[in-house]
Amino acid sequence: TISAPENQTITLLYRHDFYQKPEEVVLTIFAKGIPADTVAIDFGEQILSVRINVPGETEYQFQPRLFGKIIPDKCRYEVLSTKVEIRLVKAEAINWTTLEYTKEVRAQQKLNALAGVSSQRPAYPSSKPKGTNWDKLEAQVKEEEKGEKLDGDAALNKMFGDIYKNADENMRRAMNKSFVESNGTVLSTNWKDVGAKKVQGSPPDGMEMKKWEY
After folding, report:
1. What is the DSSP letter of 62?
2. What is the mean pLDDT of the chain?
3. Which string of b and e fits 110-141 if b means at least 16 CB within 10 Å?
4. Cys-Cys link to 171, which of 52, 80, 83, 189 (CB 3.0-4.6 A)?
5. Bridge partners of 2?
6. Cα–Cα distance, 16 to 69 (Å, whole number)
7. DSSP 124
């Protein structure tokens, strides 16, 4: 076994690969001729748990933290003669650049928080006797997110995104108007201040402001 980047332990027994559509990710585990009753798969909000326990062989375990969130109730899998095919239904129609979550993913988040489809983790494990400890896994995910630090533009984008997400309609109008009219140099949340006038640009010292060209 080896330790994966997100502190998951993976037993390298079967090779896997994936491709995606706008609404789903299809993960293939190339396990040939395994009985269906030896496969146990659970779906969490952003965690996948795969276990293949063939008698007489080393148990295969794959529990990645996924690139994006999924809708557990809509996910499914099928055990075929040459492979296990897993279909992960995306909670948001975004492109997954990788299968597993990496810290670089946070730098790619949009300024405006998308109102993604809310999904819930299973209230209890599947009917398989060995259930996944979702409380432990998801607590670990949230703890890692709390500990992650962003720098530069990524930190600013997250801050602005949080402000915009929690703002009322007037605050959002003020942010959009001030940002556009100032050519990206002023960001105000005070509609009374910016609503009745054109916002003038205010570039940092030593820099020259240029108008946007469309």
Report:
1. E
2. 75
3. eeeeeeeeebebeeeeeeeeeebebeebbebb
4. 189
5. 10
6. 20
7. S
Instruction: Give the total residue count for the chain.
Output: 214
d(CA 142, CA 182): 37
Query: What mean pLDDT is predicted for residues 138-144?
Result: 69
Tokens of 24: 């789903």
Burial class (CB in 10 A: 0-12, 13-18, 19+), 105: middle
Strand order through the sheet with 84-89:
15-20, 24-30, 84-89, 76-79
**Assigned token pair, 206:** 């030593």
pLDDT of residue 214: 42
Residue with tokens 């293939």: 28
Structural element, H or E, at residue 50 = strand 48-52
- Please name the amino acid found at residue 88: L
Per-residue pLDDT reduced to its tens digit, 14-57: 899 999 999 999 999 999 999 999 999 999 999 999 999 999 88
Higher pLDDT, 131 or 169: 169
- Nearest Cα neighbor of 141 from 191, 105, 174, 107 is 105
Give the whole-angstrom CA distance, residue 111 versus residue 160: 7
* CA 48 to centroid of chain Cα atoms: 13
Q: Mean pLDDT across the stretch 100-114? A: 59
